[in-house]
Amino acid sequence: MQNRFLQWAQQHASELIAWRRHLHAHPELSYQEIETAAFVQAKLHEYGITNHLLSTTGVVACIEGKNPSKKVIALRADMDALPIQEENDLPYRSTKEGIMHACGHDVHTTCLLGAARLLQETRSEWEGTIKLIFQPGEEKNPGGASLMIREGVLNNPSPQAILALHVSTTLETGTFSFRSGKVMASADELYITIKGKGGHAASPHLTTDPILISAHLITALQQLISRHNDPFNPTVLSITSIQGGNTTNVIPDQVKLMGTFRAMNEDWRAKAHQLIRQVTEQVVSSMGGEALLHIDIGYPCVHNDEKLHQQVVPLAAQLVGEKNISETEVRMGAEDFGYYAQQIPGCFFRLGVVNPSLGNTFGVHTSRFQVDEEAIPYGTAMMAWLGAHLSP
Q1: Is 65 in a helix, a strand, or coil?
Q2: In Å, how far from its chain's centre is CA 156?
Q3: Domain with CATH 3.40.630.10 in the chain
Q4: Which of 40, 73, 208, 373 could form a disulfide with 196 if both were Cys (CB 3.0 to 4.6 A apart)?
Q5: Sign of the alpha-carbon torsion through 202, 205, 210, 211
Q6: Cis bond before residue 234 (omega within 30° of 0)
Q7: Which helix (H) or strand (E) holds 353?
């Protein structure tokens, strides 16, 4: 049957690619995926798959095989695009100014749509129920996953496991990677306002310089990571924006900092938040300033269930061969799939989309990002194959 799944996907490759090109040309930002959701619903309806909206622009559907109550497996795809101006010269480039599918969510949606049709057509040949989750807002807090969970996406029926794929710009087309345990980091946003007392730059003794205070604070925050965290525990704290002052001879009244904090351990994450607050308050107040700190809690780290991983990898190898399966590297990027994996066993894996002959070497979240569309049938077949044959 594995050959049949791949053959089906490859036979329908032109249709799958056409879907992806339509989605790529009509991207929508997080929580605004109205046209995308309508496209998904229309395709599901066309193939006789009942579906409904959840969280405004999310789409949920179920496909029942033989013995529907034997198992429930969820397959998830994200649908939102990014606020990036596309620079690719393609006939299907984005038609929307300043919006682009620069992270492959158009591919993810297409793969799940294709898997849905394949599963629907083969439902007499596998057991259980497959729950399809087309999710909005992966790119923006609080994350569409958290909203859909809150609205009951993991109920009625309740999945025993959930899987999702993501395009990879380090893997060649036709290959996949998997990893057991922690695979992606949590992500929190830092917003700090340092208030001082502005004045003439020639008389700094009459001011409380928030720029100088900011310099000390940034250094102190880096020492927090290097001296309070186990060096074998991956973590990142980066201050990515400093805004204050607008001329050469005036010390401003305040400076605003923004940054990100990433971690792979939830206990350390909570402790680090406390330390960030303490260090910010102590450094700023010791220099005569006032600090306003907001930590916008973001996505949790993505943890792939170990037992599920042990089932998934051999199944994946059956479909594409062991030589086309590798281990995913740990990344400090974030994904709201982590919310699902906190609730039920999850497996987040990578789909290779690189073809060296095409020169598609630009990474995700860039204006020149491209994928090898020949990867889409592989992703489609893998989603359907794993969903149909897992036995959690």
Answers
A1: coil
A2: 25
A3: 2-184+301-389
A4: 208
A5: positive
A6: no
A7: strand 346-354
User: Does pLDDT of 1 surpass 70?
Assistant: no
Over residues 204-227, mean pLDDT = 96
Q: pLDDT tens-digit profile of 330-341?
A: 999 999 999 999
Indicate whether this model's pTM tops 0.90: yes
Q: Which parts of 5-147 are beta strand (E)?
A: 51-54, 58-64, 72-78, 129-135
CA R_g for the chain: 24
For the domain with range 2-184+301-389, which CATH number is right: 3.40.250.10, 3.30.300.130, 3.40.50.300, 3.40.630.10?
3.40.630.10
What is the CATH code of the structural domain delimited by 186-296? 3.30.70.360
What is the Cα–Cα distance from 238 to 260, expressed in whole angstroms? 5
The residue-averaged pLDDT of 71-94 equals 97
pLDDT surpasses 90 at 2: no
Q: Is pLDDT above 90 for 357?
A: no
DSSP 127: B
Residue 44 has pLDDT above 70, yes or no: yes
